[in-house]
Amino acid sequence: MDTYYIFFVFMSLTFFGTILFYFGNTKKRVFHRDFFQFLGGIITLGSIALSFLFLNWFQWIFLIVLVFSIISFSSAVLVEFVTKKRIK
């Protein structure tokens, strides 16, 4: 199996897990909020841990940077949305 396919699978899993974890951390009343946090955290950390076995160091660092960029971008969007809602 080619390395790029494996990288795409781990990147997709990491993206999906991070979004699930962030969705579980929102302040709104979410159905089974703890479940989303747990599932998102397990998927994200599991895909990063497994990717360490299958990917080279450059792809692994890119995966870690992807997680932090998703978290920071979604936090910035949430802060902007909340401040605009308070102003109106």
Automatic annotation (TrEMBL):
UniProt keyword list: Membrane, Transmembrane, Transmembrane helix
| Positions of transmembrane segments | 6-23, 35-54, 60-82
Give the highest taxon in the source lineage.
Bacteria
Q: What is this protein called?
A: Uncharacterized protein
